[in-house]
Amino acid sequence: MPVVGFLSARSADESASVVTAFRQGLAENGYVEGRNVAIEYRWAEGQYDRLTVLAMELLRVPVAMIVAVGGDPAARAAKSATTTIPVVTDFSDDPVASGLVTSLGRPGGNITGTSNLSTEMESKRFGLLRAVVPQAAIIGVLLNPAFPSAANQLREMQEAARTLGLQLIVMQASNESDIDASFASLVQHRADALLVGNDAFFLMSRDHLTSLAARYSLPAIYSFPEFPAAGGLMSYGIDLADTYRQIGNYAGKVLKGAKPADLPILQPSKFMFVVNLKTAKSLGLKIDPQLLATASELIE
Asked: Taking the domain 3-116+239-270, which CATH number applies?
């Protein structure tokens, strides 16, 4: 029975739905956990510096391949741990520009996967935030300095802010106390709204983030629908469950003998705009019905 190493930057308890989607993708190629494939899970729980050690642990199992999820930190850890064992991952940045693959069509080497275009959607998120909070002039931005894509995210945000004539207040957080301090500072600076960067640690901390946004009455937009499901105002980004299903599908193909070098990097095909109407009401926001009509999901 082949063993798949599942290396995640996130934690087990809050990843149940996407792990289910990953198993669905495996099943599309005839692999069922416990029946004809085993999965060894390793969770970094938002501590990116643990990922390389966890990847090395998986090599000692040993595993037939590694699935590295949670963005570029996991991808880089798997890539540094082995140049021979196949790796399927979700890239949070341009994998060619970051040097992880040679091209999108033919990645080369031992790594392939999906690209979630996280740094290319910031202008869309700013536009949605401005549409929902038209009087907003000062926008808070929350980024994790430990996330490799944070610098690219900030550049995209700054360009979008210049285009819209918005003032940015950039805050950084890599633990929960940083998050608390960031929100307090944003209130002191009279931020009108908040954009939270795409980051596995923030996704893990979504309950904490959305509760603080509610406490300070700060309208916020996030990258994934898990946030409005947890009480956040709205999100725009890829369908994360579908991404994990695609990763599982690719993992199944590799187990059948496909080479990562020949499997093109998949681009996202499903984008989700989700609005929590209950949260909008609590914030006193009246959202244009035409904008709501474009939403993928409305949470009531």
From this structure: 3.40.50.2300
